[in-house]
Amino acid sequence: MAAPKLMLDYVFDHEASRPDFVFLTQPTGGGKTVDYTWRQVLDQSRRMATHLKAQGFEPGARIAILSKNCAHFFMAELAIWMAGGTTVAIFPTETAQTVRYVLEHSGASFLFVGKLDTWEAQKPGVPAGLPCVAFPLAPQTAYESWDAITARTAPLEGRVQRAGTDIGILAYTSGSTGEPKGVMHNFERITRASENMVENVRGRIGANSPNRIISYLPLAHVFERAWVQSASLVAGSTHVFFAETLDTFVQDLNRAKPVTFISVPRLWHKFQQGVFAKMPAKKLDRLLGIPILGRIVARKVLKGLGLDQALLAGSGSAPIPAELIAWYRKLGLNMIEGYGMTEDFAYSFNSTPKINAPGCVGVPLPGVQARISEEGEILIKSPGQLVGYYKRPDLDAEVFTADGYFRTGDRGEMRASDGLLRITGRVKELFKTAKGKYVAPAPIENRINAHAMVETCMVSGVGQPAAYAIVVLAEDIRPKQNDPAVRAEVQAELTELLKKVNSELADYEKLQMLVVAKEPWSIENGCLTPTMKIKRARIETEVGPKVETWYASNGKVQWA
């Protein structure tokens, strides 16, 4: 009996059976693009693999990629695998300090530098003497270029074999709860998880339907790496487009016309706010309710977002308000929520056409086992389960139960009848107010985030008489928030929002106030992780000196 195929087996099969299929489309500036077929992708990867093997690295050597999403990220990863190495991807927005930490902690032997916006600030994080190669879209560097190396180097021949137990990916977490941790994934597990992802998508869009997808969430994050890159490497028939810049994103979407599209809650919220900036929410809602016209309006809205051909849309990485999913479904977008993490290669729960509900993340995917602990923590066994944490056997001992389930750190509730899961918060995010009761911030934040005036928020209040929430106003409101009329409107809306949210909460959960943040939270100012999750400790530290004053003033809506 033949051994089960691994990731590189699939890739070599595509090279042989569909050499001229356009696999990747890369924008190169000025509205121009370059297409890469499977034949061209593998030719480039094989040439770079020859170069890497010539360096004499030990088997399993960690080879890093610091780059935004681009075609050469895919090619470099394949080259690393063919050369016997392990890929270490670094978030392209990381500081020099974190870049250095990941390179040193992983023991990286080599670095690919690619498409970046802040390279000059990141460059000091690269240790002196570390061999580096620059991708074609990289900023100006002193490193030898990818093109120069591949032009003079012969391609590696044959079908390279890697053992299923070899570590293919060392994925560093985004650091929302402290120092990034290196999560080890081997070829056997990432392949089995990716095969299931492909079947999941084909079951939604049709087994023989062509699939187009746009890659723009960081490939250093497991969500994009698994459901976009790895799934496309297994499928072979997916056409992957890349985004050029944030400013061209709508044009990039309209070029790709994705059939499947995944995003994170913060971006789904921003897309909605962009729609509301062009048409007030109440007017749009009224139009959507008119027969025939409503369908025309909904189609126009989706076309404006570049999603009019999307048969499947997904949200993951963080909780999303149920109202937001319902809004997109009202537009006719087949939107589902899923649940996964770095430690299970983003493969654990997904909604199905029959079993789904806004506010729930679905049921266990094929091969996944799950249960809720006595403490309310979600425990999972997944085909994509991590091998362990790199250099941290102490963490391995902490996160696995005696019978091999992974402790997710998330709290949840599973419906007994069908396993439908609802996330109720993070175990470590629970905090006590002065009333002595634990408050779970995530469900309260979801209620607040559903309001059109709010971009995002954070609930806090450790040891205080009651919890409070800091809110970041929507992007279209922020520039006008100092206008007295606008401020009065915001004040009135948020007062009503506070009243509504509190009416749905237990007494010990009720918020004392909403505080409007002085400036938006971003990756650049350190308040968001590279995957746009809020860094609670960082924000709480920043506002700490003001908290007592807010409570003393006793106002329902305050301005930081």
TrEMBL record:
It catalyses: a long-chain fatty acid + ATP + CoA = a long-chain fatty acyl-CoA + AMP + diphosphate. InterPro entries: AMP-bd_C_sf (IPR045851), AMP-binding_CS (IPR020845), AMP-dep_synth/lig_dom (IPR000873), ANL_N_sf (IPR042099). It comes from the Bacteria. GO terms for cellular component: membrane. Keywords: ATP-binding, Nucleotide-binding. Pfam families: AMP-binding, AMP-binding_C_3. GO terms for molecular function: ATP binding; long-chain fatty acid-CoA ligase activity. PROSITE patterns: AMP_BINDING. Residues 16-390 form the AMP-dependent synthetase/ligase domain. This is AMP-binding acetyl-CoA synthetase. It comes from Rhodoferax aquaticus.
